[in-house]
């Protein structure tokens, strides 16, 4: 009988890391193929994106019925999962994106950035940035016909949930500082939708002070994916420390922050909105709280009333911003 492998770390409820470097993920590993979704009449396909560092993948979505002269708002989406689980092919994300694309009548791309611990941060940020640059380069032609034919590069949104919302924030800060971004039509993003954003900090605030168990759990998640001597006050996870870039530099015309009443991350989402409004940023922002729900509820229970209302809210924001 072969000897059993030794466990190095358990990051509950997500994964187990063994001393030989292998990773056993407990959730977020299911895969559903792209194609035509009968419920929403949304068509999806997987594509490859070659970057200077590696070849990444993404899943593209568009309404099935579309004419060749039609230009649609472009949404770049970053999935959640604490930077260590999930993918665009995960069935719950496939369901979410199908429904959002159907309601908003947009074209969307969901980015499959690499995950920790195999690829610790900042890999996910660099992968997401490389994909965004690749997408926006299609303003002057490119290799992907759906983007070239249907995307309106004057109406570009970023969106994400949890870790994905964190990524969207950092990319929006980076847009103004990268001269290699090839999209002269887009000086700013039209908007950013941040659903249950994953921000954190060493010192607890608000309800975090009354929930030491979940506070410790979130601490452990971050320390696992980001090997930084700054810990939970690293600017990647805490945008309010003095070393973090000013929110004033957010390259977006508008921001929508969605939080959930029972979410341990709710206080950070509220603080983000408050600090954004005080930063001198020249844009429009709104915050909406879903009562009685916890983190990522609309992903895990997509047919509940509040999940349907959240997707409707996202679609409305994209269409009116």
Search tags:
321 residues, alpha/beta, Rossmann fold, nine-stranded mixed β-sheet, three-stranded antiparallel β-sheet, globular, hydrolase activity, Alpha/beta hydrolase fold-3 domain-containing protein, Lipase_GDXG_put_SER_AS, AB_hydrolase_3
Fold and architecture overview:
The active site is at 162. It comes from Manihot esculenta. GO terms for molecular function: hydrolase activity. By secondary structure, this protein is α/β, with parallel strands linked by helices. Helix content is 29%, strand content 23%. The protein has a 9-stranded mixed beta sheet with strand order 4-5-6-8-7-9-10-11-12, sandwiched between helices. The protein has a 3-stranded antiparallel beta sheet with strand order 1-2-3. Strand 1 and strand 2 form a beta hairpin. Helix 1 crosses helix 8. It is globular, with a radius of gyration of 19 Å.
Give the gist of this structure:
Pfam families: Abhydrolase_3. It is built from eight helices and twelve strands. The protein is α/β, with parallel strands linked by helices.
Strand and helix layout:
Elements: E1 7-11, E2 15-18, E3 23-25, E4 36-37, E5 42-50, E6 55-63, E7 72-78, H1 91-104, E8 107-112, H2 123-136, H3 145-150, E9 151-161, H4 163-174, E10 191-195, H5 212-225, E11 254-260, H6 266-278, E12 284-290, H7 297-300, H8 305-320
Parallel strand pairs: 7-8, 7-9, 9-10, 10-11, 11-12
Antiparallel strand pairs: 1-2, 2-3, 4-5, 5-6, 6-8
Family: Belongs to the 'GDXG' lipolytic enzyme family.
GO molecular function: hydrolase activity
InterPro entries: AB_hydrolase_3, AB_hydrolase_fold, Carboxylest/Gibb_receptor, Lipase_GDXG_put_SER_AS
